[in-house]
Write a structure and sequence with these properties.
The complex is a heterodimer of chains A (449) and B (256). Chain A contains 17 helices and four strands. With 449 residues, chain A is mainly alpha-helical. Chain B has a domain of 78 residues: Four Helix Bundle (Hemerythrin (Met), subunit A) (Up-down Bundle), CATH 1.20.120.1200. The chains are: A mainly alpha (449), B mainly alpha (256). Chain B: It comes from Micromonospora wenchangensis.
């Protein structure tokens, strides 16, 4: 256990790297974002293709892996159109803001524990600050500017509508997102990403019948409601289906990026996929134990040391990206008012109640076990009684179709008879009659004799 | 405790801090001046965003990472986004007019602004005059976030709650003023629309086109229902209705 804990970087381990190591880490995070986009587009198209029983891109390179590269090159050589009504400076900067914010968020993601790079012991993370999770929130809230300004600066109707939708959407879902992170803060007691990963490592141990069983430490299990709400809000925050209202192609052509072409469009595309990967990485860090190996692998002692954790981390991120794609392949897009109602009237109240329950549970943590059980039992009992005794409205028995038809007032729209039976077609008889001579020719029919 | 905290406590300024300050301070000023000078309302808002971002970084530099990040999330991320939302609804070509609608408005604004600045300045001076700074070491002893939380939920809890009550009152007031509550009976959902369409006496099908069963193919000629009656549902209200007379419809002997 001691060796494991020594692997966890603390805040004191950051800010001690030489400049070349910092440079390597920054370049690594940036290249990770770019590569994730290249492979992510291919992955999404292949997976969606598999779900829709078609091959997907399979021509360029092995398994079509280079398809995105070819598309990217093609996009770079296309004509860069600047609309006449566009606000030129803002139009130019909007995609840049999107990409910068999406990539910056990767800098506080812990990719792994302490490792040795060219003799330096250093954490596999660009940097960490006491408020690292707030940095992530700030990045995601600033990324909206790219979309909103892009929509406004295009000087045309569909992009403007997309931008407006996007701003309202992001503000709504950021509230739900922030509230679900509050539960993580309360449980972990820290806001630094490496600290949250470390807090998910040392779980409490239950002793049942003399056998010590480590309780699950992942917040996805301990704080299940927060995890679910956070992931839903993440999908809303990254503009992915079924919440891709700002770029709903059936309503708004392409939403905020309708007027964009060539490299600027490519930047928007890049930022969307980097944001998807970043958000998966954030979810992994906050709720799925970060770089820590899942249970069966932890039986092998060295699972959480050295460079191995990076593999588990990438595995978890890949799994979450798959869920993103899965959602897109499965769910139809929500209507805008349904979407807003879901955010404000479902996610937000559930989150608030859950935080209240959680803080209640945490405040009775220090009590004696008998009092604690009693308090929990009383709370659960009140909840159960309220559920059982909640007045339920009995629906009136539904009238039969005949009753409905009889109760219609005079002058109603004419109704066909309800017991209508389709009469046999008069043509049927003729077909049988025409067949009669064919039977005679065979001579096997005894009735003819 | 990171290095910047230690340096700031010792009253020194590190090289990195100085460089960052001299890059961002002019940017913050440009943003502030641009906010006032920009003719386009959205440009104004964007300049303000620039200033707020620079201020957020300054807070982080001065060993207040929490307040810096909150500045960026709340002011830049949420409040300015709402501003932009409203500005976009107003329209992209709406720029400020320079005509003074109220006489003496500018003079009054300058005087009141200076007066407010003086009031806040003297208030701060009187409040902080006798106070000796304890230093960042003591303020951030348990960590920056924990220090703020302790003050917020012990010493200043009443002021904090009052502020939040004020904000909530303002928000609810705005909603009450702007929200139009429609009675449940007045709401026409899809089921109600469908029932109204099939109500007795209402013909649910499409209106007959002009000239159906009519004696002439003119738009002004009302259609005939299958039982021979004329229906004026088929002609536009602005046209004078014209039905051919019996003499006009009979054969005129030209077919012979």
């Amino acid at each position: 256990m001691n060796t494991l804990l020594a692997q966890d970087p603390t805040l004191a381990d950051f800010g001690r790297d030489p400049w070349w190591l910092v440079l390597i880490k920054i370049v690594f995070a940036f290249v990770f974002g770019l590569l994730a986009t290249l492979l992510g587009v291919w992955f999404e198209r292949r997976v969606v293709g598999y779900m829709q029983v078609r091959p997907g891109p399979n021509q360029v390179g092995p398994f079509g892996l280079l398809q995105t590269l070819a598309d990217g090159l093609k996009m770079a050589f296309k004509e860069d159109i600047l609309p006449k009504a566009a606000d030129k400076v803002v139009y130019f900067f909007a995609p840049v803001i999107s990409v910068v914010c999406a990539v910056t968020a990767l800098s506080v993601i812990p990719f792994g524990p302490m490792v040795s790079i060219f003799g330096h012991r250093t954490p596999l993370q660009v940097t960490d600050v006491p408020v690292a999770v707030l940095v992530l929130l700030a990045c995601s809230s600033l990324a909206v500017y790219g979309i909103v300004l892009g929509g406004w600066a295009s000087g045309s109707t569909y992009p403007l509508l997309g931008g407006l939708r996007s701003s309202a959407q992001m503000i709504s879902y950021e509230v739900a997102m922030g509230l679900s992170i509050v539960a993580v803060f309360m449980t972990a007691g820290t806001m630094s990403t490496s600290g949250i990963v470390a807090a998910q490592g040392d779980a409490t141990r239950l002793t049942i019948g003399g056998v010590e069983i480590p309780a699950p430490g992942w917040y996805a299990i301990l704080l299940l409601p927060s995890f679910i709400i956070f992931f839903i809000a993440t999908v809303g925050e990254t503009n992915r289906a079924p919440f891709d209202l700002p770029e709903a192609e059936s309503e708004l052509v392409a939403g905020f990026m309708t007027e964009y072409s060539s490299l600027k469009f490519a930047l928007f595309m890049l930022s969307e996929y980097v944001a998807m990967v970043t958000m998966s990485a954030v979810t992994t860090t906050l709720f799925l134990g970060g770089w820590r190996a899942p249970w069966p692998i932890t039986l092998w002692g060295d699972a959480n040391t050295g460079w191995w954790p990076m593999l588990w981390f990438f595995g978890k991120v890949l799994m979450l990206v798959f869920v993103f794609v899965w959602l897109r392949g499965t769910l139809p897009r929500l209507r805008y008012d349904q979407f807003m109602r879901f955010g404000w009237k479902v996610l937000l109240p559930i989150n608030l109640v859950w935080i209240l329950v959680l803080s209640g549970l945490r405040s009775i943590e220090d009590w004696q076990s008998r009092d604690r059980l009693l308090a929990t039992a009383i709370g659960a009992g009140v909840l159960l009684l309220a559920t059982l005794l909640w007045p339920s409205r009995k629906p009136a028995p539904k009238p039969t179709p005949q009753e409905q038809a009889d109760n219609r007032p005079y002058g109603s729209f004419p109704l066909p008879p309800l017991d209508l039976q389709v009469p046999p077609s008069p043509r049927t008889k003729r077909v049988v009659a025409e067949r009669e001579p064919a039977n005679i020719a065979t001579g096997s029919d005894s009735r003819e004799v | 405790m990171n290095t910047s905290t230690v340096l700031a406590a010792a009253g020194q300024v590190s090289g990195g801090e100085e460089v960052t300050f001299w890059i961002l301070a002019p940017l913050a000023l440009i943003g502030a001046i641009g906010m006032v000078w920009a003719r386009n309302a959205v440009h104004s808002a964007l300049f303000l965003v620039l200033t707020m971002l620079c201020l957020g970084v300054f807070y982080v530099l001065q060993a207040g990472p929490f307040i810096g990040m909150v500045q960026i999330i709340v002011y830049t991320g949420a409040i300015m986004m709402l501003f932009l939302f409203v500005l976009m609804l107003v329209g992209r070509d709406a720029s400020d007019s320079l005509i003074e609608t109220l006489r003496g408005q500018r003079v009054a604004a300058v005087v009141l602004g200076l007066g407010f600045a003086g009031l806040v300045g003297t208030g701060l001076y009187r409040a902080l005059n006798g106070v000796t700074a304890v230093g960042l070491d003591q303020a951030n002893a348990e960590g920056n976030v924990q220090g703020i939380a302790r003050l917020l939920f012990t010493k200043y809890v009443l002021a904090f709650e009052l502020t939040s009550a004020l904000l909530i009152t303002a928000a609810i007031g705005a909603m009450v003023l702007a929200h139009i509550e429609r009675r449940k009976e007045d709401k026409m959902d899809q089921v109600a629309t469908m029932k109204a369409r099939f109500r007795p006496g209402n013909y649910p099908g499409p209106k007959p086109g002009p000239g159906v069963f009519a004696t002439s193919s003119s738009v002004a000629t009302p259609a005939r229902l299958p039982d021979g009656r004329l229906t004026d549902r088929s002609t536009p209200a602005i046209l004078p209705q014209r039905e051919l007379t019996a003499e006009e419809t009979t054969l005129k002997g030209t077919e012979r």
